[in-house]
Write a structure and sequence with these properties.
The chain has 200 residues and is an alpha/beta fold. It has helices at residues 12-45, 97-109, 126-136, 150-154, 182-197, and strands spanning 65-66, 77-78, 87-92, 116-122, 142-146, 162-166, 172-177. The strands form 2 sheets. A 5-stranded mixed sheet has the order 5-4-3-6-7. Strand 6 (162-166) and strand 7 form a beta hairpin. The longest helix is centred in the N-terminal third of the chain and has 34 residues, at 12-45.
Length: 200
């Protein structure tokens, strides 16, 4: 007969150590699965991961009382600049690469007589913002500076650029997180503008 003894059964303390050791792996696996699902939805089903809904849609736009961007030759951004007008409120900065990418779309939209376009210049230096607009053109009827990002917090900004369509009565009708591209312009923004202009 062998004197070898069977190992004692694991204690509850031993089991809990194994569970704690596996916990980080399980958490990582969960995050990886979520990320994989998002990538799959984006690649296969065309999900726009930038289309983050806003709790502000359908509510009154936050009050605007922002100082002007000196050197831009347009007025400050106040409630008076958007009241009674179908308005696109665009949050931008000169240091924002996607803002530069979407700027031609804003220039195109500025030709639409139904639409009033205003800008919130976010955490930017005035000289850089004026240079940015001098280089690319200024689509904005009014610009307010938001050096500390307080107005952006009121508007629920996730990251710039962001764009809000505000009805003449001050109701937020649409929000776009990320740059406006041709697809967004044709499939989302123009239909939203047409619907609002028609009073739907």
């Amino acid at each position: 007969m062998s004197d070898t003894k069977a190992p004692p059964p694991p204690t509850s303390r031993g089991r809990s150590r194994y569970v704690l050791a596996l916990l980080p792996l399980l958490v990582f696996g969960g995050f990886a699965a979520i990320a994989a699902k998002m990538l799959y939805e984006q690649d296969v089903n065309g999900l726009d991961v930038n289309a983050i809904p806003s709790a502000l849609i359908g509510t009154k736009a936050p009050a605007l009382a922002l100082p002007p961007l000196e050197g831009s030759n347009v007025p400050a951004l106040t409630d008076a600049a958007i009241t009674g007008k179908l308005t696109l409120v665009n949050v931008f900065a000169s240091w924002c690469v996607p803002c530069r990418q979407e700027h031609p779309m804003l220039k195109e939209l500025s030709k639409d007589k139904r639409l009033n376009i205003v800008g919130i210049n976010y955490k930017d230096k005035a000289d850089n913002a004026v240079r940015f607009l001098g280089e690319l053109g200024n689509p904005y009827a009014a610009i307010g500076i938001d050096p500390n990002g307080r107005a952006a917090i009121d508007w629920g900004v996730y990251g710039i650029p962001e764009t809000y369509l505000v009805g003449p009565d001050g109701t937020i009708l649409y929000k776009k997180v990320g740059p406006i591209d041709v697809t967004t312009y044709e499939r989302e923004l123009i239909p939203a503008i047409e619907s609002a202009a028609a009073g739907d």
